[in-house]
Amino acid sequence: MRAELIDGKAIAETIRHEVAADVTRLAAHGIIPGLTVVLVGDDAASATYVGAKEKASKAAGMQGETLRLPASTTQAELLTVVERLNVDPSVHGILVQMPLPSHIDPDTVIRHILPEKDVDGFHPVNVGKLLIGHTDGFVSCTPAGVIELLVRSGVDTRGAEAVIVGRSNIVGKPMAALLVQGRAGGDATVTICHSRTKDLAFHTRRADILIAAIGRAEMITGDMIKPGAVVIDVGMNTKPDATKAKGTRLCGDVHFESAVHVASKITPVPGGVGPMTIAMLLRNTVRAAERTLAVAAR
Ligand SMILES: Nc1nc(=O)c2c([nH]1)NC[C@@H]1CN(c3ccc(C(=O)N[C@@H](CCC(=O)O)C(=O)O)cc3)C=[N+]21
């Protein structure tokens, strides 16, 4: 058996077209959705991601802007920038790229972003709304993208055993909240595993849907997967590869070559969850813009 590939690139493309249609509809009301990405410092990987976000937002017809600040930017200076964006009516979405330099506290910065403009879904207000099941907040883009992948690939989550490996605030925890809630892409029985879990393989082998979000290259091997399971790989790691010009290549948290013979469906890295993250960011930004319209009509 060889698993069917879940084509995140293609599904993300479909969502980006849906977003572009929403942008056209908003234009009739004189609104151009605006996304401002703030990048502090010159981390090479971050610069690549930020460039991709700006390109994708422009391709969807939005106003995409990137503020590049030096690594020496103080926390107070960054908070001033956020406050300026908070009150700028042409900016509907604000994303401060992580990780930030070590002299800046990410939680303080996230709390300064207006929840209504927090298209990353990182603000405590948005995390709280997700947990309660209120749909007027923003959901973290990566777990929201995973749900879209499952739903649009015809995976029935209802009553399924879903096992998440990883308990981060931006993937593992919101992923669990989405899978357990009583709506499309939810109603699963959810287990969260992490670095202190005893006998990880015992849990992963029970999973009908296995979500790997650990951040460790190729840690989930085929022998840890239940035959026929759906495997979603959130990992974005690099590993040495002499055949590549850079000397490295991208790899996930799942050992693809062994997993592909056990799973029924699997996401590749690259071309799986990554492109979905950007598509969901665009969708959140359009929603932020739509909500300003709804407020103006009151
Ligand atoms: N405030 C904030 N929000 C984020 O959403 C955020 C962040 N900070 N910091 C970094 C991570 C990482 N991230 C990715 C987005 C797209 C791909 C992506 O499109 N990956 C492609 C390929 C990328 C490549 O080839 O290098 C793929 O998997 O096919 C990957 C990773 C968003 N992040």
Automatic annotation (TrEMBL):
Any one GO biological process: tetrahydrofolate interconversion
Organism lineage string: Bacteria, Pseudomonadati, Gemmatimonadota, Gemmatimonadia, Gemmatimonadales
Catalytic activity: (6R)-5,10-methylene-5,6,7,8-tetrahydrofolate + NADP(+) = (6R)-5,10-methenyltetrahydrofolate + NADPH; (6R)-5,10-methenyltetrahydrofolate + H2O = (6R)-10-formyltetrahydrofolate + H(+)
A GO term, aspect molecular function: methylenetetrahydrofolate dehydrogenase (NADP+) activity
The protein's name in its UniProt record: Bifunctional protein FolD
Domain Tetrahydrofolate dehydrogenase/cyclohydrolase catalytic: 6-120
Family in the record: Belongs to the tetrahydrofolate dehydrogenase/cyclohydrolase family.
Biological or metabolic pathway of the protein: One-carbon metabolism; tetrahydrofolate interconversion
Every Tetrahydrofolate dehydrogenase/cyclohydrolase NAD(P)-binding domain range: 140-291
EC number from the UniProt entry: 1.5.1.5, 3.5.4.9
Recorded GO CC terms: cytosol
Protein species of origin: Gemmatimonas phototrophica
Highest rank taxon of the organism: Bacteria
Subunit structure: Homodimer.
Binding site for NADP(+): 166-168
Keywords per UniProt: Amino-acid biosynthesis, Histidine biosynthesis, Hydrolase, Methionine biosynthesis, Multifunctional enzyme, NADP, One-carbon metabolism, Oxidoreductase, Purine biosynthesis
Role this protein plays: Catalyzes the oxidation of 5,10-methylenetetrahydrofolate to 5,10-methenyltetrahydrofolate and then the hydrolysis of 5,10-methenyltetrahydrofolate to 10-formyltetrahydrofolate.
